[in-house]
Records
---
Amino acid sequence: MPSDAVPPDRVPERLRYHPLRVRRIVEETPEARSLVFEVPSGLAGAFAYEAGQFVTIRVARQGRTHLRSYSMSSAPEVDGELRVTVKRVPGGLVSNWLNDAVGEGDVLDVARPGGSFVLDRGGHDIVAFAAGSGITPVFSILKTALATTGRRVRLLYANRAREAAIFGDELDALAGRHPDRLAVEHHEDLARGFVDRGTVARHAAGAGDAAFYICGPDGFMDVAEAGLRDLGVGQDRIRIERFTPAEQPATGPADGIEVTVKLGGKTATVAHRHNATLLQTARSAGLRAPSSCEAGTCATCMARVVQGRAVMRNNEALTPDEVDEGWVLTCQAVPASPVVEVVYE
Ligand SMILES: Cc1cc2nc3c(=O)[nH]c(=O)nc-3n(C[C@H](O)[C@H](O)[C@H](O)COP(=O)(O)OP(=O)(O)OC[C@H]3O[C@@H](n4cnc5c(N)ncnc54)[C@H](O)[C@@H]3O)c2cc1C
Ligand code: FES
């Protein structure tokens, strides 16, 4: 049974935040800017990344700590730098602060890259669907695919209007340099309405056994996924990155399981409600447990089970060794024993 006192050298590297200086800022559109980070040589290994991955930034605002993930819009093989691109969310705390208040030379706390929305190793064509800020990991992936493989890529890129399209000009220039390998179709919602299944089917027509990538607002991703299903595309060929947590199922009545949560010097013991994850349980106990994707990919919510057992519905972030040590993604973990104790580091 793991003890709840994790020695500092056993705390996974992914939970450590490193101060990185903002070397350069690029205003991409009135609603989005890119931050290029300076990675010291001593951290080059920790901050090596694959196209499509993200980093998590820790920000102290309004007396609280907030963790937000941002995908790299740079591609390691092409750009030689680590750049994230942040689009404003109306009313959003961190995205607007990163757009308004952060300047070149400022230092932000950043955790090492992670994520499984990366270029597959297959040799098939790539068909991508992106909307809004969802272009960031897709842009990274398609740049790497063009630079390191001979694969053909087609992208359907939806925005309210063309001038809101982040990297719109860069994408068109890239397509100009790779006329036989990259096709970019800009979809303007104001002119054509939201992307529907018919648009998805037209974009994917004749794609054969392509690999499909989808990233954008929930409604857009649902339509793209449904459109591909209509065409008989199997789930194993579709890769999706969610920026906002998927709908959580409603939690049920108490089921006799007792959960103790330790976080930031506080301890709470509560009755578990059927179906609730450990993250939901921690929140129901009044604790401000960290999270970002709530989909099992970012590891922001990881904590250690020190008594009892919990099983994860999805784990795309933790290594087998971390799981053996008792770490769980609390957004995905549900109790599997009558008593569970979980400790956030
Ligand atoms: C793996 C991953 C990668 C991501 N990559 C990027 C990226 O490359 N660029 C980028 O701009 N963002 C990205 N995000 C989203 C980012 O982490 C934040 O969620 C986003 O910036 C909003 O944070 P906020 O503090 O401004 O908003 P909050 O203050 O957290 O939220 C304000 C309101 O907006 C809603 N909301 C939150 N996020 C979004 C969203 N993305 N779209 C619409 N409504 C939202 C919330 O439900 C809430 O109602 C990514 C998220 C994940 C999980
Ligand atoms: S919040 Fe991202 S894995 Fe749990």
---
Amino acid sequence: MTIKNIKLNNGVLMPEIGLGTWKADQTGVLEQTVKTAIDLGYRHIDCAKIYNNQREIGKALKETSVPRKELFITSKIFQNKHRPELVPGAVDEILDELQLEYLDMLLMHWPYAIRPEQDSADFTADEVEDVPIMDTWKAMEALVDSGKVRAIGVSNFNKTILEKMIPQCRIVPATNQVEVHPYNQEHDLVAYCQSKGIVITGYCPLGGGKINVMNDDFIKRIAEAHCCTPAQVSLSWLLARGIVVIPKSNHEIRLKQNLQTVTLTSDEIRMIGHIKTHERKVDPSRDIEQLKWVFHEDQAKCPVI
Ligand SMILES: NC(=O)c1ccc[n+]([C@@H]2O[C@H](COP(=O)([O-])OP(=O)(O)OC[C@H]3O[C@@H](n4cnc5c(N)ncnc54)[C@H](OP(=O)(O)O)[C@@H]3O)[C@@H](O)[C@H]2O)c1
């Protein structure tokens, strides 16, 4: 099955459906999942250092007969490597784990930094540190120049922070990877990014196994009308908005289904866009006061850019 590409702001082509790999880390399972996905036609794999499973993905990539240049591999720098002098080493480590020479996309996973010695997501408030986002970004720009990455982007960036960042960028982010699904629609952020030529990549496009999108009565009714599943409706709705999707599954039948999207009518697209339930799966701030701005712009204490 051939997946359509979206052209990024630097001309690089990104497949509009990719494979998510967060929490897909049971030993042996992920390697097989990646191989199956590639056999089914997936060419875009979404990885991250913090998922602690890149070596397994690397094994699958090493064994595939699909040429490297036909694959689109994304990875993300964890927050403990934001100090600019740590960025090149962080990418070398990612490349070593994935057994690759270059990445197609490198993302800044979150718009805040934590201390270098903290390498888990269980950090505390006193481990958050001030590293200006532009310092990290300039180190990422240099990696494009060196050929280690073909495109760079951000993740979990809100509009306020992008508005401050873009005028200072030599390379404007190619994508902003954020949580988007029918229960977290992000109309303003999507419109803003698209107006700046930044492609939105939607994570948790199915609700991440936690948000109840798949059981929404309205989504289910549309699925029945198209003889498809709620998952296919959610993915099709995101694609219709020009959003790249990266659903995760460990099951072949679902991997296949997630590639078989449908054409929704403009009324269906509009009506899903009016769903009022608002729930988000991922919130990094937990009880950390200085991170509340990440998703709650009105409480913004936007950090140093
Ligand atoms: N940048 C970030 O901060 C960030 C944050 C979160 C996620 N991500 C990325 O986005 C990817 C996707 O997000 P996600 O994994 O949280 O959630 P998701 O893809 O929305 O949902 C995955 C869940 O849906 C199930 N599923 C998959 N296909 C299905 C289908 N056709 N029908 C019914 N259920 C289905 C999966 O179960 P099975 O596996 O059992 O099929 C799993 O429980 C991640 O894997 C990761 O790569 C990025």
